[in-house]
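User: Predict the complex.
Assistant: Input components as received:
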Amino acid sequence: MNIAVDERFDIWMTELEARHLAEHTFTEVRKALQSLSSIYVERREKLTAGAALEGAGKRAAFALFYAPLHFCLVQEIVRALGAGSGSERLLDLGCGTGAAGAAWALESGEACRLEGVDRSGWASRETRWNYRALGVRGRSARGDLLRTTLPGKGAGILAAFTVNELSGADRTRFLKKVLAAARRGARVLIVEPIGGRITPWWEEWADAFRAGGGRQNVWRFRVELPELLLRLDRAAGLDHRELAGRSLWLSEG
Ligand SMILES: C[S@@+](CC[C@H](N)C(=O)[O-])C[C@H]1O[C@@H](n2cnc3c(N)ncnc32)[C@H](O)[C@@H]1O
């Protein structure tokens, strides 16, 4: 266990709670969380329209609940893949509030610099705050991942819970971009939730990653959630004591 990272996570959770529960009551966040989870689970077509991060309540629920869960899941995946070393630079595309990229950066050592890109101005500002709170060296910018120049050797590229938000045509363009970056030596990690209905494009991407020497994995991790996440999870009728997800990983090393 990496104590330094775990301590930073605990401090971050305390600061997140103070930040978001100053503006919203627990009950407001719980209700927003239920609405957000129904968008994620049942009405994913609304995602491409950006509905998930509309409204202060849903934003708070995302920042306070889903972002730390994504941090924990990506941290476990990076550890399981042995992906924690070898990247001087990390690019987090569709970074949301920055949590998933920060998890990878904290596994990659002090020298690693992180850049978050998101089309949402709110997400970009929140990412800046989270990088500071987690002690990650990085910056974030508002932008479209399809217009972002992707790095090559020495860099890692992450898209966590993002590819599914793209339209079919954009997803095809994005696949070509990340495969080209991998051929230039970048390491690429894609993370999505489990569920064939939710990600019907997954097999095509998995074939393309395998053809390039990469791998796909389905993961289930039993984690000890912080008290606040447990309380929100229970109150919203959810169960995230086991974190599940799938990944695509392509690395020449
Ligand atoms: C479900 S959130 C995931 C956020 C983060 N990666 C995480 O794991 O917590 C998806 C994010 O992708 C962003 N996004 C969707 N399409 C995008 C695009 N074309 N360019 C940049 N960001 C995009 C959304 O604004 C949103 O913040």
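The helical segments are 3-21, 26-42, 56-81, 99-107, 121-134, 168-183, 202-211, 227-235.
Let me know if you want any component modeled separately.
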